[in-house]
Amino acid sequence: MLNLIGALLFTLFQAPQLDGAKLERMVQERDQLHAEWRTSESKKSGIFGNRTKKDMIETNEWLERIITKDNQIMDELRMIGSIETTTITQDKDDYKSITLKLEKDVQALKRAVAERDKEIENKLTERRAIEWALVVFFLSTVGLGYWLYRLKKA
């Protein structure tokens, strides 16, 4: 059980770092694509410093690459969210099972304490009965002794 909890904690703390590195790399790639797009946006290879159709097509291609990278980033974010949701659900289920087990243990301990209390009460009842029997025996012995003393004296 302890190994399971340790493994869960390890994955909780390691998974975001690994996914975060991948996401960070994807964002850096997107930034590079954005810089390339800006460069192609300022490119004017036409006559009299105008933009040509080829320049515009190249700019559109960079925009398509940026959109593709954005979609990859969004997919990665959805996957991270899904992993976190799954991990949280698994943790919730684990904690629920641990809680149920502990609840059963508490109920068993309560029953054991109740049985022990009954045993103690029964022992006290037996003890009182023995004490009363001893008191009666003592008093009857004292009474018998006094009666024999009076018989001997008379």
Kindly name the structural category. mainly alpha
Question: Total helix count?
Answer: 2
> What does the largest sheet look like?
none
Low-confidence stretches: 1-13
Q: Percent range for helical residues? A: over 70%
Return the average pLDDT rounded to an integer: 84
Categorize the overall geometry: rod-shaped
What is the β-strand count? 0
Name the helix and strand elements from N-terminus to C-terminus, one letter apiece: HH
Give the amount of beta strand, in percent. under 5%
| N→C terminal distance | 86 Å
C-alpha-based Rg, rounded:
44 Å
Topology:
Layout: H1 2-42, H2 53-153
Helix pairs in contact: 1-2
Q: Main traits of this protein?
A:
mainly alpha; 2 helices; 154 residues; rod-shaped
Structural overview:
The protein is an all-alpha fold and 154 residues long. It contains two helices and no strands. The longest helix has 101 residues, at 53-153. The radius of gyration is 44 Å and the shape is rod-shaped.
Summarize the structure.
With 154 residues, this protein is an all-alpha fold.
